[in-house]
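During data preparation, we tokenized the protein backbone, and the record follows.
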Amino acid sequence: MIKFKKWMMNPCQTACHVLSDESGEAIIIDACAYYPKERENLIKYIENENLKPVHNLLTHGHFDHLLCNDLIRENYGLLPEVHKGDATIIAMARERINEVLGESNFTYDIPMPEHYLEDDERITFGNHSLRVIHTPGHSPGSCFFYCEDGGFAFSGDTLFAMSIGRSDLPGGSKEQLTNSLKYILDYFPENTVIYPGHTKKTTIGHEKACNPYLT
């Protein structure tokens, strides 16, 4: 049985998830804790649940989704994993993160990936796995992480409850985002639960019926 914990973190209210199962192995999705208490709570949860993180996944490479990748490396020896399409974006975020945040008393040393994700790749933890679904548009390497067994997916900033991601940021493409959204709406069963990178959870069926950006 899959168990997961969700936090809304940092000034952008970005979602961070920790998934685990009966094996004790865990996956971290979008390790984005910014404030000291957020960083402390993330580690405390993992330790209190006796979890062993085996993957540190990013739905995409924008800075608000990777703010505590340094902490995950230091505590668990894990480097971030992101689709290869966002290699340049995560490098830019790494170089500019302290400038963007305006920090004067703390330096974020965000690590670069060694392994870049591929479309349709399987990411395994314990007795379960997630499928990587490449959904470019918000960024070149944006991805969904889909758990068929559990009937849920993590959409990053591609699809939100009653909204969609921006396509006007560097590397974004309105045409690619439109194509990605069409693909996922056709691919997923309507009862698939979607956990976005911001906003509350939703379902594919609800977004098909009610999302004004998908009509």
User: Anything to note?
Assistant: The radius of gyration is 16 Å.
